[in-house]
């Protein structure tokens, strides 16, 4: 756990199409996390097969890949204390019906196959996912708060 821990958060095609981008970003901003990288991407099935490689063989895998490639996703990196674990708590459970009200899935989703947002499940996987989705690298943030207020 460190204040520079990073997690990969991705708004899935259903979240984008339902107009939930702003609401999801607001939750991470209001919680205190810092946005390190963000882009709207039309992904491809081969790329998504890499992202979900651990799930290859599951009966829902083909449908998951098709759904994830059905429209653009918002790829993001968020940084802050315990970002991976807290990000998962903020998302809720994989199945929205098991997600507490107040979590993203608990407030905005009903079906496991349309659960609007992804979050890394470990620091190690976050690093892999950030490298997969941002091969160009991410912005190097400095401590620039004063520069937003003073010349
Ligand atoms: P994610 O990777 O998307 O954040 O989800 P997760 O860790 O909570 O769940 P995981 O087991 O990695 O599953 C990845 C995504 O596959 C879909 N899924 N469908 N129909 C089903 O039984 C089923 N189970 C999982 C969900 O969209 C899940 O988020």
UniProtKB/TrEMBL annotation:
Group of enzyme by EC: transferase
Alphabetical GO biological process terms: CTP biosynthetic process; GTP biosynthetic process; UTP biosynthetic process
A Pfam family of this chain: NDK
Nucleotide-binding is among the record's keywords: yes
Residues reported to bind ATP: 12, 60, 88, 94, 105, 115
GO MF terms, alphabetically ordered: ATP binding; nucleoside diphosphate kinase activity
Cofactor(s) it depends on: Mg(2+)
Catalytic activity entry: a 2'-deoxyribonucleoside 5'-diphosphate + ATP = a 2'-deoxyribonucleoside 5'-triphosphate + ADP
UniProt keywords, alphabetically: ATP-binding, Kinase, Nucleotide-binding, Transferase
The EC number(s) this enzyme carries: 2.7.4.6
Matching InterPro entries: NDK-like_dom (IPR034907), NDK-like_dom_sf (IPR036850), Nucleoside_diP_kinase (IPR001564), Nucleoside_diP_kinase_AS (IPR023005)
Active-site residues per Swiss-Prot or TrEMBL entry: 118 (pros-phosphohistidine intermediate)
Residue ranges of domain Nucleoside diphosphate kinase-like in the record: 4-141
Residue ranges the record marks as coiled coil: none
Family stated for the protein in its record: Belongs to the NDK family.
Name this polypeptide is given: Nucleoside diphosphate kinase
Organism: Candolleomyces aberdarensis
